Amino acid sequence: MPSLGSSYSSIGKSVRLSRILDERGTLVFAFDHWFEHGPSDFSADRLDPRTILEKVVGAGVDAVMLTPGDARLFADIWAGRTALIVKVTGKTSLRPERERLLQSPIGSVEDAVRLGADAVAATVYWGSPMEDVMLERWIAIREAAEMYGLPVLQLAYPRGPSIRNRYELDIVLYGVRAAVQVGADLIKTYYTGSQASFAKVVEAASGIPVMMSGGPKREKMVDFLRDLKAVREAGAIGAVVGRNIFQSRDIERATQLCKAVLTGRASPEDAAEGLL
């Protein structure tokens, strides 16, 4: 429990984090892909965001991470049913490739407050030539969020011309430590490929909750579920998943399977039985 010496802001953060995080295993649905990747991520029968969100929220996801516009447009789906994280930075794939290592403002902390969000999210590409621009924006976001008692999730993504393998343990460790040192309240980062290595990532976060980035759709759902089991056993609080849910054959079932494995209610093999 917060002490009598706790600030209003710290209590607000604690309350809002409790709405997002399930200590048994947290599943956040990431749905900024239309903005970040465009139609290439969506099959012809998955072009309606409303249908996807209704299925995911109905299946019991702990939180949704949305752009400000989608959070406004689909408030009737998430409001009162799940926690909301508003992503306030982004970039489109329409940009020239050389400029895709910069995330731009797509909303504000004040937008998130007006929407009733429980947290805000922003990306920093550690190692990018534009790292300093994103850091300046990150600090402004963090300071504004502090005023309102909003937790800030950093998508700590090492990317840049000098980074050959963004999933390498030392690279992920570096990004996570950097996120901690600039004040992240939650961290989303790349999976390093094993429970043992990801346990070092969690340790490096010094108590700040770490969540695995779901990444591209895996060929076999059971393999992705095994990754979820590994990160939980490594001490991560959970995962932020997008494509491995909304590109699956059965969106509701995929959501339920991810949650069941994260909370230890099912093994990956048992959970994935009957799902391609």
Overview of this structure, please?
It is built from 13 helices and ten strands. With 276 residues, the chain is α/β, with parallel strands linked by helices. It has a single domain, classed as TIM Barrel (Alpha-Beta Barrel). The strands form two sheets. An eight-stranded parallel barrel has the order 1-2-3-6-7-8-9-10, surrounded by five helices. A two-stranded antiparallel sheet has the order 4-5. The chain is globular.
In short:
The protein contains 13 helices and ten strands. The chain has 276 residues and is α/β, with parallel strands linked by helices.
Relevant terms:
276 residues; eight-stranded parallel barrel; alpha/beta; 43% helix; TIM Barrel; 13 helices; two-stranded antiparallel sheet; globular
Calculate the mean pLDDT score and round it.
Answer: 95
CATH architecture call: Alpha-Beta Barrel
- Backbone CA Rg: 18 Å
CATH topology: TIM Barrel
Poorly predicted runs: none
What is the count of helical runs?
Answer: 13
* Beginning-to-end CA distance, first to last residue: 44 Å
Number of structurally distinct domains: 1
What is the H/E order?
Answer: HEHHEHHEEEHEHEHEHEHEHHH
Strand order of the largest sheet: 1-2-3-6-7-8-9-10
Look at the structure and give the CATH class. Answer: Alpha Beta
Question: Quick one: overall form?
Answer: globular
Total number of β-strand segments? 10
The CATH homologous superfamily name equals Aldolase class I
